[in-house]
Amino acid sequence: MNSGFLASCAQIIGQDHVLTSESDQQAYLTDWRQRYTGKAMAVLLPTSTEEVAALVALCAQHRIPCVPQGGNTGLVLGSVPDQTGQAVVLSLKRMDRVLAVDVSNNTMTVQAGCLLANVQAAAEVHQRLFPLSLASEGSCTIGGNLATNAGGTAVLRYGNSRELCLGLEVVTPKGEIWNGLRGLRKDNTGYDLRDLYIGAEGTLGIITAAVLKLFPQPRASLTALAAVPSADAALQLLNVARSDLGPILTGFELISDFSLQLVLKHFPLLKKPLDSNCPYYTLLEISDHESEEHANGLMESVLAKALEHGYATDAVCATSISQSKTLWQLRENISAAQAMEGKNIKHDISLPISDIPTFIDMADAALHAAFPGCQIVCFGHLGDGNLHYNVSAPVTMRDTDFIQQQQAVNRIVHDRVHGLNGSISAEHGLGMLKREEITLYKSALELSLMRSIKAALDPDNIMNPGKLI
Length: 469
Hints:
- By secondary structure, this protein is α+β, with helices and mostly antiparallel strands.
- It folds into four domains: 3-91, Uridine Diphospho-n-acetylenolpyruvylglucosamine Reductase, domain 2, CATH 3.30.43; 98-216, Uridine Diphospho-n-acetylenolpyruvylglucosamine Reductase, domain 3 (2-Layer Sandwich), CATH 3.30.465; 220-335, Alpha-Beta Plaits; 342-440, 2-Layer Sandwich (Alpha-Beta Plaits), CATH 3.30.70.
- The protein has helices at residues 3-13, 22-29, 49-62, 116-125, 142-147, 155-158, 193-197, 231-245, 257-266, 292-309, 321-332, 334-341, 356-370, 399-403, 406-419, 444-457; strands at 18-19, 42-44, 66-69, 88-91, 98-102, 107-111, 128-129, 165-171, 177-180, 206-213, 215-216, 220-228, 249-256, 280-288, 314-317, 344-345, 348-350, 375-381, 386-392.
- The strands form four sheets. Strands 12, 13, 14, 15, 16, 17, 18 and 19 form an eight-stranded antiparallel β-sheet that branches.
- The longest helix has 18 residues, at 292-309.
- The chain is globular and about 70 Å long.
């Protein structure tokens, strides 16, 4: 252990915020799904951008790898260190202040350690909406959301994290501070450094603050669940909804019947809102700036048209905020229910929306042929082409044995995604988990360009090494 380095860290942030004991570090070293635990020389807890810059400058001086971390809710091992014990984890959890709200400009400036749920609440105080919404919003941070370009349930209308950010403050691998906290919607003055750092998973620098876009609060928000006979019917319903609802269609989720049954099994307080069984269900949400009556009329019209044409066989609209939350819980608890059922092989993929039914048919058939009895949990953001296509073991096989087949399962799924011009990571990033996998699907030129950027900005490879590339 480098005692001189750690002593210098303590001078910057105080000894109490330099964690070196195994018990103090544990929560920072184990990933969200409890699959992997790394090791670290120390966990550092700064409270300001200047402290982050001083710590990173020390890391650069001593050639010590630095792993930035927000809420540590990632799913691809992007925010935990490797097992060498040579790195430090630099957690931004203490940097959790809202710095400014500009109501007229519809912007909010926050430190990177702000919890997403707290940003949403702060916007609501000013009668504004920050629309990024994730199942982990009570634990994930804005810095982590931006570092992974998180998507969530409202991408269809508002875009992902990249579209919701106007400016950044970043500490470079040399410990310099780039202040790009500009609340401008037009700034055509050269390379867009903001977009370079968003989605870079902390490999090019550490995001310490951001200027976020805010929106007017809608006057009405309405949720509905529709049973659909196939993924293709769900696509047809999406086409009707987009045509008739336009920009007020906020979310459009696909849920397979098997996914729904897992939630009902493991969350018995949640009840199935429809009597009929169907292969798939769609969850629709609209946000209207006119009135609740207007929103109800539009939703009822879309569902009536879907029922008339056979795109849906049954449907229910939430009539209260409580009912709306219950419908969303059926969707948001799928991952938790699958985890309760046992270990599984996850895929976070994106495809041209028009090709999603084709992909599901192809991948389902290939997986069932290769692994008879395997159980497929298919759900996700159909409206923006992002599926969470997870595969669980057959009931006759132990989940620990099935996990050993991950490489073969990935080949079946990812090869078909690639064949349809899709992506093997839609919103989770690459991290350590998919770093090698992506080399099978990106061109040599694309990988070379990415490595050139990394080498130019972080020549000593101290910033989250071993992740993404």
